[in-house]
Structures are given as structure tokens and as C-alpha cells.
């Protein structure tokens, strides 16, 4: 019986390359699709982004790490005033919401590169451990938001004295 070699066997050299069997013959053909957006940029310029569509909300990138006593969250919020930030903390989750508005309006075709995110953003972060909500703090300096969340020590025990009364 003459067994045909697999694609991998032919690729690795254990089968002759002129073998008529091709594992990719049964795949569906590639269909080229056309974009429904009109390309209205000149040669050498990237197409403008459609960030200003309603419902587009960015996701704030964050760094989350821990020390022996705290969980620390850091996020770049350059261009966002402190009164434009909303931070909600529960024992096991932090949600950061805000918005960054463009200070001047520039027409789409006038951009050469557009990579900054403008508009509202949000980020929900599940915490690996419960935190003390009341003792948590947040500060922003030089465009860097830092949230410090003290960990709850579940192993900590407190002795209560019974008062006669």
C-alpha cells in the first residue's frame, strides 16, 4: 500500500517535494474583501483614524504590582485633570474612569500621524487580594496616576476584652 506523506514529512525532507499530495488542497479558497471605507488620504499619509465615532471608549493601560503591605496601580493619565478622573474602589476591584479632550480641533486630512487617544476611557481591575478601602489613596504627578491600596491581613487576629457591666 502506498501511503502519502504528510505536509510536515515533505517539509522536513522525508518525502519527495514532487509528491502530488498537498494537505492544503482541501482548504476553502481565499476571498478578497474590499473595505467599505473610502480611502481619502494622499500618497504617503496614513488614513485618519475614526476615533470620534460614538461608543468608542478606550481602555486605560495599567501596571499593577504588590509590596509586602500594599497593592499599587499605576497608569499614565497625561492630559487628564484630576477632576476628570473617577476612581471607585471595592474590596476586590478598582475601576478608573475619565476622559481626555483635545485642546484644539485639527481636521483629519491634516494629520500625518495620529496615535494619541482622545475621549473617554475606563479600566476595571480585579485585585488578587482584598484591600482596605478606607485607607486607600490616589495621587497624580507628572501625568502618572498612582493608587495605593493597603492589603487586608486575614491572618491578623484581635483579642477583645469583655467588660463587666
Structure description:
The protein is mainly beta and 165 residues long. The chain has two domains: 1-27, no CATH class; 60-150, Immunoglobulin-like (Sandwich). Helix content is 3%, strand content 28%. The protein has one helix and eight strands. It has one helix spanning 7-11, and strands spanning 58-59, 63-66, 70-76, 85-89, 93-100, 119-126, 137-141, 144-150. Strands 1-6-5-4 form a four-stranded mixed β-sheet, with no helix packed on it. It has a four-stranded antiparallel β-sheet with strand order 2-3-8-7, with no helix packed on it. A hairpin with a 3-residue loop joins strand 2 and strand 3. The longest helix has 5 residues, at 7-11. 8% of the residues are buried. Mean pLDDT is 75; it is low at 33-54.
Quick gist of this model?
The protein is mostly beta strands. The chain is 3% helix and 28% strand.
Amino acid at each position: 500500500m502506498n501511503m502519502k506523506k504528510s505536509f510536515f514529512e515533505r517539509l522536513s525532507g522525508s518525502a519527495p517535494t514532487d509528491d502530488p499530495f498537498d494537505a492544503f488542497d482541501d482548504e476553502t479558497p481565499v476571498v478578497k474583501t474590499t473595505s467599505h471605507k473610502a480611502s481619502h488620504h494622499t500618497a504617503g499619509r496614513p488614513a485618519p483614524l475614526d476615533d470620534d465615532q460614538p461608543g468608542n471608549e478606550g481602555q486605560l493601560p495599567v501596571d499593577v504590582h504588590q509590596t509586602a503591605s500594599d497593592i499599587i496601580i499605576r497608569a499614565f493619565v497625561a492630559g487628564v485633570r484630576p477632576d476628570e478622573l473617577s476612581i471607585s474602589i471595592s474590596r476586590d476591584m478598582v475601576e478608573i474612569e475619565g476622559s481626555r479632550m483635545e485642546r484644539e480641533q485639527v481636521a483629519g486630512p491634516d494629520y500625518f500621524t495620529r496615535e494619541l487617544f482622545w475621549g473617554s476611557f475606563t479600566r476595571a481591575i480585579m485585585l488578587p487580594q482584598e484591600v482596605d478601602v478606607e485607607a486607600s489613596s490616589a495621587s497624580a504627578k507628572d501625568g502618572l496616576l498612582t493608587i495605593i491600596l493597603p492589603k487586608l491581613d486575614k491572618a491578623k487576629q484581635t483579642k477583645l476584652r469583655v467588660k463587666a457591666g
